[in-house]
Amino acid sequence: MPGIDYDRAREEITMEEVLTLMGFEPTSRNGDQWYGGCPFHACASRRRRCFSVNVALGVYNCHECHRKGQQLQLWAAYIDVPLHPATIDLYWTLGRDVPWLAEFNRS
User: Fold this and answer.
1) Which of 37, 52, 73, 82 is disulfide-compatible with 48, CB 3.0–4.6 A?
2) Domains plus CATH for the chain?
């Protein structure tokens, strides 16, 4: 299976793009830090702020279910597939070319 340049993918796809595709709407924002309900489960907290995202750093964390990672991992968890096919799906969903590793692009 061809390799993906994940470093390039993390640079090209923002956390905000992934959150938009997921339909995530924060309940509050503090600069680059966004808070809201976890897209994976119903938050028990009254304020629905168990899920936090730093859009500048491209990282997320749920303080209840303990899922965390960066934007590619978030998409993989959201569509419930491993990272490699999830990254391909994310690029296709965004209408972009997948950043394949150069050694796999030889024709």
Assistant:
1) 37
2) 6-101 (3.90.580.10)
